[in-house]
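BUG: 3D viewer hangs when loading the predicted structure for this chain

Environment: internal workstation, default settings.
Expected: structure renders.
Actual: progress bar stalls at 90%.

Input used:
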Amino acid sequence: MNIKSYLAKKKTIVDKALDKLVPPANMFPASVHEAMRYSLFAGGKRVRPILAIAAAEALGAKTSDLLPLAGSLEFIHTYSLIHDDLPAMDDDDFRRGRSTCHKVYGEAIAILAGDGLLNLAFEVLSDPRRTKSVSANRLLSIIREIGAASGVHGMVGGQVVDMESEGKDIDLPTLEYIHTHKTGALIRASVRVGALYAKASEKRLKALTRYGERVGLAFQIADDILDITGKQDEIGKAVGSDLKKGKTTFPGFYGLEGSRLRANEVADKAIHSLRDFDRKADPLRELAKYIVNRVN
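Structure tokens produced before the viewer hung:
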């Protein structure tokens, strides 16, 4: 299959859903809604919602009612990027090839735009009118899954350790904790959301969870490599920013070639997790390959 064509098609579907879910830019108070949309539609690949969709498709489920849930994952991801770019965090001027949210709208509105997207995610997730085919119990499991992945046991916890580790020599377990929580937790949750939506058996849920964990780690190793080897006009932000901030990355432990080998090894393990799935899981298999070979 052509993974680029698949991603483009699914991105269009996700973007249409997002446009309907987020308030219009001119709705009062317009400043925060405009800032939310500015970052949300800045050209993201929609990897997390697409992983949720692909996981559900791997189990043979129709995904129309999954779109609001998948969109909520992108709201949370975008909120995390807005806050991550703030001067108190990574202090970045560019994201996805354009000025970061706080550079355009100021720090206060950027913080509130991130807060708005985070809370909008749970407003959408908890609205049964948007997901009529999903039972209350399954919806509750999905909300808990996303909440845990987004909070101190997931993304927030990873961000804290990442910031506290700047300029320090950290060991490999600490680095892997940062990666599997700051980035990997929401990727893992995205796959599990698709599986829960599709009523996965316990065995298949475990297999997809292993896939999500491995793909999440591979994604961040690839990001570490791109921070050194990428081109600014392709990755959309300054190259070498992690090194300038004194962050320990996978290339710092393994070197560039060793990191590439490690990323491919983890991606292969992710694909192996799907050995009992038929061709409906091919998009997930191809996504694992795409994640480690992407240029942005």
